[in-house]
Amino acid sequence: MKKSIFLLISIIFISCASVKKYENIELDLSNQNLVKLPDDILKYKKLEVLNLRNNNFNQFPKQVSSLPNLKRLFLSSNHIDSIPIEILENKELVVLYLDDNNILNFRNLKPMQKLRIISITHNPIRTKENIECLIPKEAQVLYGNEFPTIKGSDCKETK
């Protein structure tokens, strides 16, 4: 009887611990030499902050679009060459850091109404449109690249 109770308590403890493992709201996977995200990332449904700096991603990890509560995403110092359309699914995203990558074309992020800061310094961006016309009005873009200067009010409506 005592062994069964002990076994039952052990099973409950182990299953609670494994559920709590995915309760984190912040996850730091920086400096791990990752080339893709681990499959377990999708179990972090409450995740708000994801740090993927200084890894070896060649592509933007599309799995982040399946993290419904993500507010801050740090993908600086990788080898990412584009921003996929799936990023638009991150409706709660407020901060996006993409510094020191290989991004050539900048995607229209205007539909991301909660986005407030996007950092894209040190990317070889060749987008012809003004970056400030491709982000929500309330957002600030931080960049060290050379772009034509157009005041936000001069932006044509882009959808």
TrEMBL record:
PROSITE patterns: LRR (PS51450), PROKAR_LIPOPROTEIN (PS51257). It comes from the Bacteria. Keywords: Leucine-rich repeat, Repeat. SMART domains: LRR_SD22, LRR_TYP. PANTHER family: LEUCINE-RICH REPEAT-CONTAINING PROTEIN, PTHR48051. This is Leucine-rich repeat domain-containing protein. It comes from Pseudofulvibacter geojedonensis. The lineage of its organism: Bacteria, Pseudomonadati, Bacteroidota, Flavobacteriia, Flavobacteriales.
